[in-house]
Amino acid sequence: MITFESDYTTGCCPEILSRLVETNLEQVSGYGKDKYCQSAEEKIKKVCNAPDAQVEFIVGGTQTNQTIIAAMLQRYQGVIAAKTGHIACHEAGAIEYSGHKVIELPQVLGKLKASDVRNCLEIFYKDESHDHMVFPGMVYISHPTEYGTLYSLKELTELSQVCHDYDIPLFMDGARLGYGLMSKTTDVTIQDIARLTDVFYIGGTKVGALCGEAVVFTHGNRPEHFVTMKKQNGSLLAKGRLLGIQFDTLFTDDLYFKIAKHAIDMAERLKGIIEKKNIPFFLESPTNQQFVVLENKRMEELKKQVGFNFWETIDEDHTAVRFATCWSTTAEDLDFLENIL
Amino acid sequence: MITFESDYTTGCCPEILSRLVETNLEQVSGYGKDKYCQSAEEKIKKVCNAPDAQVEFIVGGTQTNQTIIAAMLQRYQGVIAAKTGHIACHEAGAIEYSGHKVIELPQVLGKLKASDVRNCLEIFYKDESHDHMVFPGMVYISHPTEYGTLYSLKELTELSQVCHDYDIPLFMDGARLGYGLMSKTTDVTIQDIARLTDVFYIGGTKVGALCGEAVVFTHGNRPEHFVTMKKQNGSLLAKGRLLGIQFDTLFTDDLYFKIAKHAIDMAERLKGIIEKKNIPFFLESPTNQQFVVLENKRMEELKKQVGFNFWETIDEDHTAVRFATCWSTTAEDLDFLENIL
Amino acid sequence: MITFESDYTTGCCPEILSRLVETNLEQVSGYGKDKYCQSAEEKIKKVCNAPDAQVEFIVGGTQTNQTIIAAMLQRYQGVIAAKTGHIACHEAGAIEYSGHKVIELPQVLGKLKASDVRNCLEIFYKDESHDHMVFPGMVYISHPTEYGTLYSLKELTELSQVCHDYDIPLFMDGARLGYGLMSKTTDVTIQDIARLTDVFYIGGTKVGALCGEAVVFTHGNRPEHFVTMKKQNGSLLAKGRLLGIQFDTLFTDDLYFKIAKHAIDMAERLKGIIEKKNIPFFLESPTNQQFVVLENKRMEELKKQVGFNFWETIDEDHTAVRFATCWSTTAEDLDFLENIL
Amino acid sequence: MITFESDYTTGCCPEILSRLVETNLEQVSGYGKDKYCQSAEEKIKKVCNAPDAQVEFIVGGTQTNQTIIAAMLQRYQGVIAAKTGHIACHEAGAIEYSGHKVIELPQVLGKLKASDVRNCLEIFYKDESHDHMVFPGMVYISHPTEYGTLYSLKELTELSQVCHDYDIPLFMDGARLGYGLMSKTTDVTIQDIARLTDVFYIGGTKVGALCGEAVVFTHGNRPEHFVTMKKQNGSLLAKGRLLGIQFDTLFTDDLYFKIAKHAIDMAERLKGIIEKKNIPFFLESPTNQQFVVLENKRMEELKKQVGFNFWETIDEDHTAVRFATCWSTTAEDLDFLENIL
Fold first, then answer.
1. From CA B175, how far away is CA D239, in angstroms rounded?
2. Closest listed residue to residue C12, CA positions, set C201, C288, C243, C306
3. D102 close contact with B: CB closer than 8 A
4. ipTM of the prediction
5. What does D274-297 look like in DSSP terms, one character per residue?
6. Statement: the pTM of the whole predicted model exceeds 0.95
């Protein structure tokens, strides 16, 4: 059955597989010290226009969030996130399991407002008993957000300014970064992100790789003994080449951007279909995830023919669901969907 | 300077000191296995009308919350609390430090609504991806709350019912329990609490003891190996007698209730003074903590004459502050306050 | 440069790559719920002769140890291991980071003695203050050990008996399991392991896969909510297919055993070369890792020509080093080594 | 029944109780910001001849060890301790529960040897894979040790030198410090300890207080945000006065030293009795704890008449037991013991 349930239903870009095959018998060192990781790091620094950046590769998203946050926070600090942020609600408490509070702030379309963050920090430091409270030690945002929405350059600049004013790092979860960068409406480039955040990651798992996220410490600010902390977190891969080769391929000839653009093109066509069929959107998303509202009866019938994802209950009779495109979505997949919708 | 800044500014009931002096040279075993702890346990079970209860003594409130919550939750579970609950905002992340998320729900006058808790649990179990979320494994309430407010018997019964329906324990932080029980307006008794909660504690530190909280597992539900978990949490006191003797004294001749009643009587007089002086209340509290709104200029002047507690910023010109009475507040203290207000 | 520094210097069996290519565009569900994971699970259960077993796939070894141990222990329990066990010394404290003590016992050639384990448990329960101690809650062994040695069937049976007597699980780290099973001298089969342990894993990373370890809960004893605990540990892979496909391939037509046998054959030839060259062994290993003692001067020269691994300092002039074979070691690699040794 | 089972069987020095009574109605701030804590701090700094020291008060020993170690270590570090150190074996894994490994080294009469510590650190930094290991980040010693033995000034100086050479703090658990300082044979003063360690504590619980340990950061090296970390650990006492008053009293007119000397005098007499009765010592202890070997039959009879503590099983027929004196031991207690031994 054709499915739009997520952007990780297929394997990876054929270019990656070819590269894995070609390099398979080469002997290289483990734990990320191989030439492919080094080459990928250089390419990523270049595309980010960030010569002082340091790049680390980690297998999956939750693992990356957990590893980065626990490595950058002091033990008396927590991380500010939108109430709907992935670390706040869909990582089974991985951050708290590492000992840190996720300080939840309200969200608007999945986004944190810079003014809310500033307010939170101001109140904290004004509170005479703040020594009895969790210190806000980092701001976490996802871009695209869990709702497929995007920060504008202005919003990102404001968030960066707040973090700078309070001397805490801004961390961007870019599990779906490619789809954000290739969105038709965005004014944010990867160079902007490298300039405005302190650490971010370029998602591979959901953008054409078998697995892997490339973490960018944007200005030589990788924590000391990071490799030991990765090991301690269980996130140091023995055959680091698996990640290096994938990202080296993704950042050769703009592959990462091309495949993300394809997914966005498919998403735009998907939006057109949904509009044509008069199915109401749950919210407006400029990226590869589209959220619509279905009557439950209709939803149950549709489920038998095509895959999609439960999002949230609207009322007794309606449910919000998600359709996602990705690098491997085809025109035929959309033709099929158009026919049955 | 006379101060109303908190209910822990003085030492303890003289009866406790006398008892410490009398028993000082008796040799008893450590770690809570002494006869005073046993006697205190029996008296508390009796006053709670809970013959199957088990009682444990711990030195302080945050320590008690941390020890109880981490002992009763599975590692994949978090604890539901009001956004204003002590564990959510004023314990420096002690619960998260133990690995567990505090699942914050909205509050009304510091209280959790049973319908919000039920809704949270319903949504959780309906969510098809709840395996990727923190399981709600306990409900935490404070009574009196951090705002000095109280649950009614009906509200408490409803919360108990929700917890029962979802088979998770209801835990009451009773750091100021005495003041709640002796409030003029409450319809909740300690027997009700023992019947409706799964675990609660009777605060000593803020109600006449030098230190100490008496934890009541209401129906023989103390977790296995609790003593080892206390030790692991650093909350097993070597000279357990210090806690046993204090609670044994507090639960002899209704001392606990008498001193709490005194504090309530003083608080009622304090309310009268505030009304007479036309100072606006920040909220209506039926217990020993009274919250009022002061103009900042007035506040600064008053600070030089009497102690009280910053609560929160209202606007640029106004601040909410707290005045607390306790077992040792005297009529003279209030006369003095009346004069200067 | 040819290297024998470890058994994870090359990619993976070509059969795995072919299978990844073939299945690449198939759409399957994430998080290990795909048909490849199911098929791999069935094949593993069959080869283990363990119809009630449950199989889970995790990306790497440290991650697997951390996830399994923290999921199976109560919080007041620790895990018994040899002082030289991987979790005791080479995982950067990943177990302690999860809150659990590694209770270190002496080792003999990298192995735990059943009598030492029994003694440790007996002393623990006899100690009148054991409530103030970490409860031994699991026994961890590695097979092959970190020194390439193997438990005999008798030794394994005795360890199993001790664990059974004290009702704690026996956990076998099988990161290099294939090489142990195919050793010329072993009398232990995978069915024995499935019968005698409570949980073990079949290493993929070091035995022909790109990554991945297959955890076998041998008798339906997978902990409840294991998927949530994996998520919490950052060890739940989104594209679970990557692990499923690899293990499904490894357990088709005995591929896992064939490639492990090849590595053992190569190791036997390597031993012959070492003997012929009169280089002293550091210890006798019947598996794919061979440990020899080199004069430091010789070692430094050799380093320029071939890769191998520092093991430990013997004295000022001598060092123990490791040469490892694997599925991809060729006769030519050994010819080369023979020439330069 | 008279008991020698531990040095925490009685309450506290009468001087402390008097002081608690006298000060009981004074209103002071909470959380250790009261004048008694300040005064005690000054007195302790003076007696230590350490003008830059900072003093913090914590209720109990395990709590103190847990709070100090977790506040001073980086998360990738562990603490070196003797295998018999309190944190290694009798604190229910409180250190590991905080995420840190206790790196166990051999002991000689309960003491760490400086050469073993140096060796451990040397090997660690020489090991090429030390990034995969727990970094040794602190050395923990107890003085007196768990066996009642003492470091000589030379031994302490050597340990201090090793720590200095490797730039890690030396931490002394002084739960029974007074008895060590007053030992007839020691050449170590409290000023030596303040000079040679980076942090140590002066035990109150076992030396005449109801509870409390005074932590001394010897050279202005208290970790930043220590109060928040105490709160997070549940070790910040609301009525800090309880600790301040006790230590202020103990360090007035040398009370701490006088009561410790009394206990040592009693221990010397106890040793004489044991010798006279030809009961073999388990080991030679110069402090208030005396360890002897009893035949099991004799031990069982004796248990009915006097209290003492199980220490460890020697063989099937013999057991090592502990007799402890303390500030409140009387000549009559010893007369009684002499009669029945």
1. 14
2. C243
3. no
4. 0.96
5. HHHTTPPBSS--SSSEEEEEEEHH
6. yes
